[in-house]
Amino acid sequence: MTDLFPALTAGSDRPALHFGDRGLTYGELFGAAGSLAVRIGGASRLALWATPTLETAVGVVAALLAGVPVVPLNPRTGERELAHILADSEPAAVLAAAGEQLPDGLDRLQRIDIPVTGDAGPPPAVPSPADPALIVYTSGTTGAPKGAVLPRRAIAASLDALEDAWEWTDADVLVHGLPLFHVHGLILGILGPLRRGGQVRHLGRFSVEGVIRELTDGGTMLFGVPTMYHRLAESLDEDRELAKALAGARLLVSGSAALPVHDQTRIRTATGRPVIERYGMTETLMNTSVRVDGEPRPGSVGVPLRGVELRLVEEDGTPVTTYDGATIGEIQVRGENLFTEYLNRPDATAAAFDGDWFRTGDMAVRDPDGYVRIVGRRATDLIKSGGYKIGAGEIENALLEHPGVREAAVTGEADADLGERVVAWIVPVDSQSPPTEGELAEHVAAQLAPHKRPRTVRFLDALPRNDMGKIMKRALHG
Fold first, then answer.
1. Among 26, 131, 280, 289, fewest CB within 10 Å belongs to which?
2. Right CATH number for 8-166 from 3.90.1200.10, 3.40.50.12780, 3.30.70.80, 3.40.50.1980?
3. 447: confidence class by pLDDT, cuts 50, 70, 90
4. Residue 22: C-alpha distances to residues 51, 218, 324, 340, 371 (Å)
5. 1 confidence band (pLDDT: 50, 70, 90)
6. What is the CATH number of domain 383-475?
């Protein structure tokens, strides 16, 4: 029953979950989740209205205790996408906080309100490690979202590998304000602390003030996405309390997208603390991380985690044999951390694998000592220009070093002479006096190489981003 959460059955009064002024000890969580687990036991599959609340955490723990697969639903999902997910996953009911207003698309489902008090009933049978735990839908950038079926073994393997890499213990108090419908916020940010027997303090909504308050009050770890760390970096110059709070944390971790080197450097200079980057996906959970006892290397996502095999392959599928920090290849991984299938999509599942290696679609280079640096997505960030393979990520980092650039994204566009030309999308610091195209091209050429300079520059008021802070490059077009 508690294969994923051994600390639950102890009936401890140690704090487990905190959302604002609401919280549960391990004993209280076991009572509330255990009572709900008895009620939902035997269900085929359940949806979870995944708001950033105490109830969402209780709901997912209950489903895992009962051995019932759960489909987290993004509360901001549009009508069409929600209808697709419900039709595809066919949940028997939806779990939601009492009083939470649900959209019309969920009317046809039985609703089960999530309790935050209760008494645990008799334990269900212990599920198999291969049994499905969560079905998390991808962002759908190349079609309708696909449901990645994550088995219990994948959750345990990833969280235990992070215990090893980050020296994560029951003494840690994790602080974050991430959404709870995705791997980062829900699996790492809620299930991670509970598996270790530690505590999570969720901010409800991310704020600089909330980070200061919780880290100052005993928080030891902070999870965030690059947009959050950018806001922290922007505030550091004028906020000594923030610098002190970040400096006092044991571990600062960024994920879900690449953290610009500029922000990484600003935070470390002001606090003495590096921001650890890790790399994962919905289908693979966590693959690599900078280790807490390793060298923090800005721009790198570290080394493969324990139990994860990683290789780079050429476009024709040939494995890259020399790791020189320059040769670009697609990342493929295998290990216990992988999903088992895309729900109802055997064709997509088969296409996602090269034998037992999962094709991530992410392009990277690897240093001789094993450190991995991601240069972008194969579909949107690998630019073939003038016979060169160019990763958008390194150009974006170079552009962000320019004092006139607030945000930057780089894409490729068809060019009759070069094949593709490098296009920079820039949010300037001063919209009334932005840097010139020539100035930015010279800046990149001096930082990297002439063939990597942007040939076209387009200025925007803001870059399009999704709920996890990732830039939606498919929305950028001339």
1. 131
2. 3.40.50.12780
3. confident
4. 15, 17, 51, 36, 41
5. very low
6. 3.30.300.30
